[in-house]
Give the backbone structure.
Amino acid sequence: MAKKTRQILRRIQNVKHVRQITKAMYAIAATQVIQRKRALFSARPFGEESENTLAQLWATAQKQGIEHPFFLHTERKGAALLVMNSDRGLCGRYVGDINRAALGFCEQHGEVQLLLGGEKAHRFFRSRPWPIAEIYLRAYERPDLGVARRILEDLLALYPERVGEVWTVYMHFRGELVQRVRVERLLPLEVPEAMGEELIHEPALPKLLDHAARLYLLGRVFGILLSAKASEQAIRRQTMKAATDNADELIDKLTLLYNKARQHGITAELADIMGGAEALREER
Amino acid sequence: MNVRLIAAERELFSGEADALYARGVEGWFGILPGHAPAAFALEDAPLRIVTGAGERTFRVKAGVVQVRRDGVVVLADEVSEIG
C-alpha cells in the first residue's frame, strides 16, 4: 500500500513540474502577444496608406497606358509560396494548420517553389517533392524590417522571371482570440480601384510606380511577419493556458487518489492492530 | 494642411503643417497648402515639416510623398527624427 501512495506522490510531483513550465510559458506568451500586437497595430497605417498611394498611381498609369511587371498577369507557369510557420512547437494547432494549408496549395498548383519560414515548415517540406528556394530559420522571432527586406528581395529574384505568381500562407491575426490561416496572393499585385487623376509626378510614372510598389510590398511582407508572430504567440498562450488547467485538474484527481490510498492504508493498519489486540485479549 | 509621416514600423508625425520641404530625385521642393495633387519619390535626405509650433526635421529613407486633396502623406521605409 505504501508503495502505491509513493507512486501517486511521484506522479503528483511530475505533473507539478510540468505545470510550472506551462505556466511560465503562458506568462511569456501573454507578454509577447501584447508586444507583437502593439507592433502590428503600429505598422497598420503604413500598409493602408501605401496601398492607397499605389492604387492612385496605378489608376493614373493605366489611364496613360503604362504597364508594370508587378501588375501583369503573365503566361508563365509556376508559383512561389512563402510559408510563414514557427521555429518552435508547443503552439497547438498553429504548425499543423499552416503546413496543411501549404501542402494543399502545392498539391493544387503542382509547380511550386517554396520559401520556408520556420523550422517546422522546413521539417515538413524537406522530404516532399517541391523545390525549396529559400529557408528562414530563427529569422523572425522578433520581426524587423531587415528580415522583411531579405524576404522581399528573395521573392523579387523569383518573380517575374522564374515564376508567374507569388503566394503566401500565414496565420492572420484578427484578435487575441481569433486567428485564421490565410492563403493570399502577393504578386501580381491587386490594389483597390481608384480614381486616376492628373498628377504632378517626379520622376517619370513607371519609375515612381516601381518605387511605390516596392514600398507597398515591403509593408505587406512586414505586416505578414508581424501578423504571423502575433498569432503564434496568441495560440501558444491559449495552448499553455489549457495545458496548465489540465495539469491543475490532474493534480486534483491524483491528490484525491493519494488521500484515498493513504486513508485505506491507515484503515488497514488499524484493522491489523485491533485484530492483534483482540487476539491477545482472547488468549488471556 | 494635414500632414502624415508614416514609416513602415510606425507613424511619426500627424497634424497640421504650414509647409513641407524635401529632396526629390530631381532636387529640393516645397509643398504649401493648396498644392495640386502630386506624387514624388524622395532621396535619402532630411525632410522638414513647418508647423505653427516650430519646425521638425526627419531623416527619410526610400520615401514617397503624395499630395492628396485632403492632405499630404509621406511614406518611407525608415524615418528618424533629427535633433
Summary: Chain A has a mean pLDDT of 93. The CA atoms of residues 40 and 203 of chain A lie 32 Å apart. Residues 205-283 of chain A form the longest helix (79 residues). Chain A touches chain B at residues 39, 42-43, 45-46, 49-50, 52-53, 56-57, 145, 148, 197-203, 207-208, 211-212, 214-215, 218-219, 222 (CB under 8 Å).
